[in-house]
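Re: the pair you flagged

First of the two:
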Amino acid sequence: MSAEIRVPALPESVADATVLAWHKRPGDPVRQGDALVDLETDKVVLEVPAPVDGILEEIRTAAGEVVQAQQVLALLQTDPEGALLTEAGPPTVPAPSPSPSAAPPAPSPAAAAALTATPAAPSQAVDMVIAPAARRLIKELKLDSDKIPGSGKDGRILKSDVMAYLDEREKERPRDELRAFRSVPEPPERPGVGGAGERPEQRVPMTRLRARVAERLVQAQHTAAILTTFNEADMQPVTELRNRYKERFERQHGMRLGFMSFFVKAAVEALKRFPVVNAAVDGSTIVYHGYYDIGIAVSSPRGLVVPILRDCDQLSFADIEQGIADFGNKAKDGTLSYEELTGGTFSISNGGIFGSLLSTPILNPPQSAILGMHAIKERPVVVNGQICVRPMMYLALSYDHRIIDGRDAVQFLVTIKDGLEDPARLLLQV
């Protein structure tokens, strides 16, 4: 009998998906839970696992095809007794039917070998689990996954594990491996400098994520009246507080104390004072949110993603740092879920980690505002009538002028500045 492998249910905001890559070929034996195919959506890459043990009988959608929810992707030939490819013992291949028209398709050599081979010892029966981003990198670089130790749950190999493995081999073949990893092709050699004077070009189709990001950014520019207001914050009080308690914080909570938790807390207090910044436009209606779900922009192998930290007003500094750390790991691993990327009432983007000194962040629709953090630089400033050197950061707030007045936007940003320059305010909520 055959089982249908279908596209899983997609959220309302996602219309379709693209077949990214098949991990099995027709005739290959598979176990329940094995990743059969990756589907790329506007937000995440989905793994479609095998629902039962069996042999992949037929693939009905090729890589690159656009598919809809519940569309049949492939057929999986299963054993009627449910014993195919299990650890109970070596299964037997059913005898051919007397009628040629009813005979089951002959398995491939690999499948036949798998069916007749002696099962592995129990300690080796569980297949190695590899994250989608790591699997693509291993395939790209033609690496042996057996040599890469996994640090994820149940030994799951993450992209960071592959990179660590590459770092160990960098002394032997650094250029070849690092060149293969780069997501953007290396620029061609300049004419006349080690080349033949040609003017090569390369066309690379946008990923669905990149295309969706482009669509949303253009939508934001066309539908919202975007303005940006700027300020600067003296980061010395926060820096001194971090330096004073970071070791104790790490011992007690098992994670480092970063700057982002201070910004999230400061943003929550500012949103409470200026609810319109936490609101959204819905046609001719303004929707005021009574909760504080803040999107934290993080970089992933597929581009920028903005997972949502829910109910930030109810989270401690440790909760915030843990949530952000989890988002970073999932973004690298490609395991962020739809729920983690959906919703949000306000966003924070930290271009400073890439060296940005000043920028104008673009709204993340339907949100009405976004805070931009930047690099901390020591600059001469006047404090109490004296010129001194302080670690300063430029802050930028982009907002939708359709519902947010300039006065509210400026005072909102000043509230964040005050919270950062006097962190006790964040604890006392004053």
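Second of the two:
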Amino acid sequence: MSWQISEADLCSIATGAALLGTGGGGNPYLGLLRARELLRSGLRMQAVSPEGLPDDALVVCAGGMGAPVVSWEKLPRGEEEADAVRTLEEYLGRRAEAIAPLEMGGSNSLVALAVGAQLDVPVLDGDGMGRAFPELQMVTYLIYGGSPAPAAVTDEKGNRTLLSRVRDAYALERIARAVTIEYGGHAGLAMCPMTGTEARTRCVPGTLSLALRAGQAIEDARMGSRDPVEAVLKVTGSCRVFRGKIVDVERRLVSGFARGQTTLEGLGTHAGETVVVEFQNENLIARRDGEVLAVVPDLIALVDSDSAEPMTVEVLRYGFRVDVLLLPPSPVLTTTQALRFVGPRAFGYEVDYRPGQRL
């Protein structure tokens, strides 16, 4: 199954992907502007379900790499990720027949659509994280058997770095991150060339269409004067666990990551309570009055209490009134194999992940 992405769809996907991105993945507005201009120039964007991929198709994962704060301040040229895919195509001697999103978060979901339009190939309705994560070894294409090489990193000046041999996924993260830092803190990335069969069995399926539905639910609720937060809860199966006001944001750039925490004081029924959300590009753990409320791979999203507009980490400010939503992770992320890479201990939190603990 495949379908064409319209300009209206892009707006919904941008909103929904920002929600799924749990604060990371790059600013969705910039990704939206970039993708929209490609559509207006006459290019087309097409999505394809995992089942719609030919078994022997060459599928390449593409996305942006770096800190979200840098991507907001250092505007891209717009060809970085497509150049990274072209670099792999030249190395492999074969054209990519589909693009697999690196993650379903913020700008990166729209970046994949932009690359598909630039190369005139469809984009997989699925991704390698089911959300956004800060490091490459956390990509499901790698967790479930994909090769860390070849990979390519490119910048807005036309520089290209090809990694033809990489020992493992951790080495890919370290080397690609170092190159990205040298490129100014944000770069285009292409990796994990796969067959259609491999992409189908390794991806988190249906996330592009989920982002579209979530974004549409928020927009329809706003137009119909209904509660957009309630609308997104129904579509995503999420729950609202806290409503509060941001009273402090600590944010710093460390080794190519935006690290810090957001402190919220409760409002309404949550008055007198305090929630602290720690992030590393993405929201990773939430504690209410010191007790763990939720932890990765649960999706911890901060949205505007009135509009349900998702808040990425680079736009968080004192005084914002937000709801803390917890979205259930894909089962692809909660296997014993996956939790080694995306569970709380992978981020240095000495707690165990318990499915359903958010309830």
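The chain has a mean pLDDT of 93.

-B.
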